[in-house]
Amino acid sequence: MKKFVVMACLVAVIAMGLPAQAAKVWDDMSWWGKTGATPEPQPESGRCPAQIKRCGYWWWPTVAASNVDDAELWGNRGIVYQACKPEEPCVETPPPPETPPALPERTAIILNNVLFDFDKAVLKAEGKAEVDKLVAEMKKFPGDTVLIEGHTCNIGSHEYNMGLGQRRADAVKKYMIENGIEEARIQTQSFSYDRPAVPNDSAANRKLNRRAEFKITLAG
Questions:
Q1: What domains lie within the chain, and their CATH numbers?
Q2: Which among 41, 62, 162, 172 has the fewest CB atoms less than 10 Å away?
Q3: Closest Cα partner for 27 from 84, 76, 85, 86?
Q4: Cβ atoms within 10 A of the Cβ of 155, count?
C-alpha cells in the first residue's frame, strides 16, 4: 500500500511540473483572398475536378497586408481550401474563314481593226498579227467567245457588200480555227456598209471601213 501511495505522489509531482496545455484555437481565415498577398494564390493543379465544389489553392504569401494576428502565417507555404465554383472550360471561338482576295476584274483586249483590200476577203500579215492576239487570249480563257463582224465601204450594192462582209468575217474565223480555237466559240455576222467606222467621203476613209471587228464575250 505504501508503495502505491508513493507512486501516485510521484505522478502528481511530475504533472505539477509540466506547463498547462492551452486549448487549440483555429485562426479566422475569412481574411484570406482579401489581403493583397503577392503573388496571388494559384489553383492547385489537377485537384479541382468539375464535379466537386471544393478547390485547393497553393499559397505563397510574401507581403503581409492586413490581420497582424496572423502574421506568423506569412512566409509559410501551405494549402488553403475554400468553397468555389470551378471555372467553366474555355471554348475558343474559331476565327472566321479568310475571305479569298478578289480577283481583278477582267476586261476584253482591244484589237486594231483588221483591214482588207478593196473587194477582197484575204487576211493580210498585219491582220493576222491582230487575230493572233485574240487567239492567244481565247486559249488562255477557254470560256470566252467572239462575234466577228464583217464591214465594207459604200462602193457597190448593199446586197453585194453583204456577201463581201460575210466572206471577210468567215476568213477571220477560218484563220482562228486553223490556229486552235473551237468553231463553236466563234460567230460571224455581216453588216455590209450599214455601220461605217468613219464617213465614206474619201478614199482614205473608205479604206478604214473595209474591216473586221471583234465583239468578245468574257467567261463569267
A1: 37-88 (no CATH), 114-217 (3.30.1330.60)
A2: 62
A3: 76
A4: 14
